[in-house]
Amino acid sequence: MDKNRINIFILAAGRGERLRPISNHFPKPLMPVLGKTALQRVIERVSALPIKGIGVNACFMKVKVREWVDQSQFKDEITLFEEDAVIGTGGALKNAEGFLGDSAFLVHNSDVLSDIDLNKLLEHHNASGNLATLAVHDYPKFNTVLLDENGYLIDVMAGLKYPKGTLPAPTVAFTGIAVYGPGFLKFLPDGASSVVDAWLKGVAAGERIGTFDVTGHYWTDIGTLSTYASAVFNMLRQDGETVYVHPSVKKCEALEMQGYVVIEDGCDLRGIASLNNCILLPGSNAGALPPHPPLAKGGLRGGENYIMGPGFRVLLEDADMFGPTQEGRQLIGTGGSDRKYYRVTNGEGTQVLMQCDEDDPEYERHLEYTRFFTKHDVPVPQLISAEPENMRAIFEDAGDMSLYSWLKCPRTGEESESIYRKALDAVVSMHTISEEAFLEFPLLGKRVFDHEYFQWETDYFIERFVKGLWDISIYKGVILGKELDALALMADSLPKNVIHRDLQSQNIMVIKDGVRLIDFQGARIGPPAYDIASLLWDPYHCLDDALRERLIGYYVELMIAKTGGFDESSFRDSLVTCRLQRHMQALGAYGFLSKVKGKKYFLKYVPEGLRMLKEDIEFVGDNYPILKEIIMGL
How many Å apart are CA 596 and CA 460, to the nearest integer? Predict the structure, then answer.
C-alpha cells in the first residue's frame, strides 16, 4: 500500500446538547443538510485525500449511526468504533490506536462544514516534521489557541489564564480539523481524555504542535440551532438556490414559499399553507402543529423563521442567518447580476432597495424601462422612489419566489400549467406593445436585436463556452464565421417587437395575484420567438413536450386575439432559429459566470443547456455543418 496514504478519523460521538430538541430525534452527525447527513458531507470531503480507511466513533444514538453506516455507500471504507460512554476526543483516538497507529492520520469533527483545502493541510504537515498540525483561523469568538511567532502552539484557553491585555502572543481558533503523526498517540492515556491535554503534554515534552492558517475559508460548525440553520441556508446560497425539496417529496399542493425553504426527506406537507425561512426535518408534520402567532390570525398552518421536526417547532431569531445584512437590510437574490438588492421595511410592509455601482450603465435604463412597462400594463415591480445621486431605487417587493424556485416543489400538472399561462399573459402584454409606443421611447426603440447583436451572442458562446470552459481550439474558423453570420442574418430577418430578452424562469416572480417580470433592463426590439424559446426551452427547468405544445398554442391564441394579424406559421418556423441562438447565449453566460465571475453553481445548468442545444442543431444542422460538428462534439 502507498506509504503516503493515511487514515481518517471522524469524531461523531457527542450528544449535541445545544441542538435540543433536534438532537432528541437525530444524533448530531446525522443532522440533515440539504439531503445529506453532516457525516456524509464530511466523508465526501475527506474522500478526496489519499486514504486507507475511515474511522468513525459513535456513542449517543449509536444504533442509528451504525444503521446509517451499514446503508452508506462508504460502508466498506468505514470502521465504526462504538463507545459505551463518551470518552472524549483523546479517548476516542486512543480507543482506535490499532487502526491509527501505523501512519499519519487526519481527524475531523463531524459537525464541521468547511471549504478548507485538506490536501494542502496534509502537504503542510508532511513537510513540517510536526507531531501534529492544527488547522486554525482567526475567529474572534473562539480564539483560545496561543501561538508563538512561528505558529507553534504555546497554550490553550489563553483568555482564561492571562489577565485581559496581557496575552504574550496572538490567539487563533481551532477548526476541529488536524493531522497527527502516529507518535501523538503515546501522549493519550487509556480511558477518557481530551486531545487538548495531549497537545500540551507534547509541547512540554519538546514536541512541535504546529498550525496551518486557513483564515478566509468558509467554516462553520452545526453544534447549535443557530449555526445549524445558518449552515443550511448558507449552503443554499452557495449553490445559487433559495429552495431545497428532497426528491422523495411528490406533491406540494398549493404551498406558498418565501425566503429560504428546506424540506427534507419524510416530511408530511398536508395542511401547510405557507413556509418562510423554514427548515423541515425528516418526520415533520407542520400541518399537525397549532398555528404559531404570526400566522394565527389568518388561520394558516406552516411557519416563518422556524426549524420544524417531529412534534416540535423552534423559532430562529437571528436575522443574520437568512443572508448577509448591511445597515439592517437583508440581501436578497441569487442571480448573475453585480447589482445588489435588499429587503427593507417601512410602516406598511416591505420594499426592495436596488443598489447599483457608480458606473452601472443599466441603472437609468432600469428606472425608465420600469416606468414604460408600467404605463403599458406589463406586470413588473413598480418603482416607488429613486435616488440617482446614490445609484439606488426603491421598488415594490415581488417576494423571493421565482418561477424556478416555485417549481422546485412538485406541483400538479394543473398548477404548473396555470402559472406558465400567467407568465405568458405577462409576456404577451410586452410583445403587443405597439410600434408607435416603443418608437416614441428611444431608450428602447433604438435597442434592436439585430444581425450584429445575434452574432455577438454566438461569438460569446464560442469564446466563453467552447474555448473558455471546454478549452477547445476552433479549426476552420473562417467557415464557422460564415455559418454564424448566416445564422445571424436568418435571426435578424424575423419579425420584431418588444421582447424581454432574458425570459427564463429565474426572472419571473410568483406572487399571490399572478407574476412579476424582473431583470428586464436588457429588453430590446427583437423576435418574440426568442422570449418563448427562453421560457419554454429553459435549461433551468425542462418542460414535457405535451405541456410545451399546449403553452405555445395558448400564446398563439393570445397573440391572435390581441393583434389580429399574428402569423402563427411564421412564428413556429422561427422558434428553432431562436432556440439555437438562445441556448448558445445561455451556455456562453454559464461559462462566463462560472469561470470569470466565480459563480460555480451555474455549471449545474450546463448539461441540460447542452442537451437542448444538440437537439436544436439536429433540426438545422445541414445548414451549419461546422457548427454542428463543434456542438455535437461537446
Answer: 13
